[in-house]
Amino acid sequence: MDIENLLVIGSGAMGSQIGLVGALAGYDTTIRDVSTTALDKARDALSEQLERNIEKNRTTREDADAAWQRLRFSADLEAVAPEADLVIEAATENLDTKRMIFADLGRLTRSEAILATNSSSIGASQVAAATGRPEKVCNMHFFNPALVMKCVEVVRHAATSQDTIDTVLEVARVMGKSPVLINREIPGFVANRLMGAIRDEALRLRADGIASFEDIDTAAKSALGHPMGPFELMDLVGLDVSYQIRQSTFEETGDPADLPHPDLAAMYERGDYGRKTGKGWYDYETGA
Predict the structure, then answer these.
(1) Under 8 Å between Cβ of 4 and 112
(2) How far is CA 221 from CA 14, 200, 214, 282, in A?
(3) Strand partners, 137
(4) What mean pLDDT comes out for the span 240-264?
(5) Long-range contacts of range 157-161, CB-CB < 8 Å, 24 or more positions apart?
(6) Which three-class secondary structure state does DSSP give residue 63?
(7) Helix H or strand E encompassing 138
(8) Are 218 and 230 contacting, i.e. CB atoms less than 8 angstroms apart?
(9) Residues catalogued as catalytic
(10) Which whole-number Å values give the CA distances from 252 to 120, 130, 185, in the listed order?
(11) Residues 71-120: tens digit of each pLDDT
């Protein structure tokens, strides 16, 4: 189907950047959040991001202004949902919350609208039934930061139609992304499973006293060519997100090996989430 209007649910770091990606790609895009304060914060952050992109010659003033004109912010789901051709949900990683959102979307959007979740750990099959049209539901998983990262994982479940998959893949390409089709749901999908294997080994190496986390990061960058080490990456993504992904995987599999590493769990309990809180593996408040 032809996609003209995007609706992004959630105005956090991921949701707001996905919205801007859509607007820059030429789609009329609405970012929706229950909190007007969060929407104001997102509006300011995206405006600053566009100015930085112009300064760094990543986009022109003309293209940035045109994208901004295509971007709207709203707290009124009932007003904006009926206009959407494609909805991308980027709310908190909580299954009950997502099911409520998708039930509302199934009720408020047009029957032909595609409903996608950006979740990195919850398969669309777990929310599809709430919509009343599971064939129109899939995962469309962006990576952080969504404005920069090229990969988008498109994950089908047993009931997802081919038309839905083809449409979402094409939208990702129009956005300038490199979509990866995942043919059946698996915890962590593809990229996070690869990343998780590296992260888990890095945590073990540190816990066993083999090397410091700084030196493990250095090895990943200087020997393997990674743009950042696994501990730097955890701080960037958010240790809370890493923890929640592992916890969600364990709840799905029941395998104790999938539980968050004890050191990761301890940092989560302390509220040291990485860059977003000023402290994770590295201390960002002092610049260390």
Answers:
(1) no
(2) 25, 17, 11, 16
(3) 115
(4) 89
(5) 157/123, 157/124, 157/125, 157/128, 157/184, 157/185, 158/125, 158/184, 159/125, 159/128, 159/134, 159/135, 160/124, 160/128, 160/134, 160/135, 161/135, 161/136
(6) helix
(7) strand 137-142
(8) no
(9) 120, 141, 153, 192
(10) 13, 19, 12
(11) 999 999 999 999 999 999 999 888 999 999 999 999 999 999 999 999 98
Counting every residue, how long is the chain? 288
Tell me: pLDDT of 49 over 90. yes
- The pLDDT, as a whole number, for residue 288 is 55
What is the chain's percent helix, strand, coil content, to nearest 5? 50, 15, 35
Q: Which DSSP string do the residues of 209-230 spell out, in sequence order?
A: TSS-HHHHHHHHHHTT--SS-H
263 touches 281 (CB < 8 A): no
pLDDT tens, residue by residue, 194-243: 988 999 999 999 999 999 999 999 999 999 999 999 999 999 989 998 89
Structure confidence at residue 260 as a pLDDT band (50, 70, 90): very high
Helix axes of 36-55 and 61-70: crossing angle, nearest 10 degrees: 160
- What's the one-letter identity of residue 168? V
The Cα–Cα gap between 109 and 112 comes to 8
Write down the residue that tokens 């051709």 correspond to.
85
Could you give the CA distance from residue 71 to residue 198 in angstroms, rounded to a whole number? Answer: 37
Q: CB under 8 Å to 221, separation ≥6 — which residues?
A: 227, 228, 229
